[in-house]
Amino acid sequence: MKIEFTLNERPVRVDVAPMARLLDVLREDLRVTGTKEGCGEGECGACTVLVDGRAVNACLIPAIQLRGAQVQTVEGLARSERLHPIQQAFLEHGGAQCGICTPGFLMAAAELLHREPHPSRAQVREALAGNLCRCTGYQKIVDAVAEALS
Amino acid sequence: MSLHISAAPVLEPRTLAEALDLRASHPEAMPLAGGTDVMVYLEGGVIDPPRFLNLWGIAELGGLSRTGDALRIGALVTHTDVVRSPDAQALAPALVEACRTVGAVQIQNRGTIGGNVVNASPAGDTLPVLLALDAEFELHSAARGQRRVPAAQFWQGYRRMDLAPDELLVAVHVPAPSPGDRTFFRKVGTRQAQSISKVVLGARVRLDAATGTVTEARIAYGSVAATPVRCPATEAALIGRRRGDLAAAADTVATEIRPIDDVRSTAEYRLAVAVRVLRGWLAAV
Question: What is the pTM assigned to this prediction?
Answer without folding.
Answer: 0.96
